[in-house]
Amino acid sequence: MGELKHTGWRPRPVRDEVRENLSRRLREGTPLFPGLHGYQDTVVRDLVHALLSRHDILLLGLRGQGKTRLLRQIPSLLDEWMPALPTPLRDDPLRPVSSQGRRLQEEHGDETELVWIHRDDRYREKLATPDVTMADIVGDIDPVKAVSQGLGFSHEDALHWGLVPRSNRGIFALNELPDLQPRIQVGLLNLLEERDVQIRGVPVRLELDVLFLFSANPEDYTQRGNLITPLKDRIGSQILTHYPSDTSVSRTITDQEAWTDRGLPVHVPEPLREILEQVAFEARAMTELVDPRSGVSQRLSITALEVAVGAAEARALRVGGERIRVRLSDLFAATPAVCGKLELLSEGEGPKPAALALVGKACQTVFDATFRNPYDKRRKDPSENPDHPVVSWFESGNRLELDADATDDEHRRTLSSLPGLDSVMDALARDTSWNPGEDRDAWRELFLEGLHQHGRISRELRQGALRFGDLISGIMR
User: For the chain, is the Cβ count within 10 Å smaller at the N or the C terminus?
Assistant: First the structure.
């Protein structure tokens, strides 16, 4: 301790520590929370204002919006190392709050040995569940310790400290706050306002130095639990989180989080990659099917991409391919990853048909952004429609089946067997300079699916194979 005093070190409250480190990063232009995307002008801005104001914070938002990830980045604003007395409460060497810390200081003075605590060890996180007790959060009397040391049950040294006291001089995060029982929430009031603790009537007053962070889902307020008003009133700032505003931000998040390193080169064609990201946006917009109060997690896009790559990987392993190339059928094979992310307003036929419908709707959205409407009802002669060569080929009784286990060369030959497909695609492209490049096969698949979504041809999905045919015969089947 004497050496520490000689350096001129002075303690700072944890809120001031975070505030000063945040201020320095803002002056230097250092990125605050790397790995978070789409929040810079909204959530991060509000969070900066709250931390500079030394507030406890509640992140409020639907599931899969990165609340926990953001909470776990805030400890990066702490000093890298912190000196402390070797006590359960990590007492300040110059101003200990526990009786054990004061005894060490009195007995050893400047010779007191210190420990150095890394910033990662100054962050404690707890998931709020209905079975959480005050003993977990604050602490309880330890009768074994009291008897073995000859202490009374009201002695401070007879207490077993909970998570919050052990987070002294650090950050304590509580996820899904409304799931905490109301009586436990009441027990947090003193911690937030007076910063002291009371355990089973033991008159212990500790000047705890803790920055509190909370997360909550607004749906939990009425469904699984309730956030009591006095506790909400004591939290300094409530910050609303949100989903990505567009697919470009969403794709950045998905590419960062999804596991696609499978040992073989992986190629996800551009139109199919956009469709995978669009599925979540379609689900959030389809409020007549999906419950908007529960939200659609960003994890939908992440897991859907992983399963689509897995389906392509399985095909490559079966047919001996040297490259994993995702096809349209792999997107429909990824629906198991979508089903678990949907809270349907009505069960109906179940989540599987809903997931298939969402993939089809996402295909139509990407199709409409690239190609013009293939059918104009005002034309009296159907042959005047630009898509007529393709549609008439199917109307002549032809069918096109894309086997999920076909090799890349077989898949390409099957698509090339449809006459006039490329010229029709070029004629309907919104951008005259449109060039599908190496992803032409994927664009061909998307174009056929787009014709199906617009009611021009039929499409069946059987055992992973896509079968395109005449609309009328498809309806009859």
Answer: C
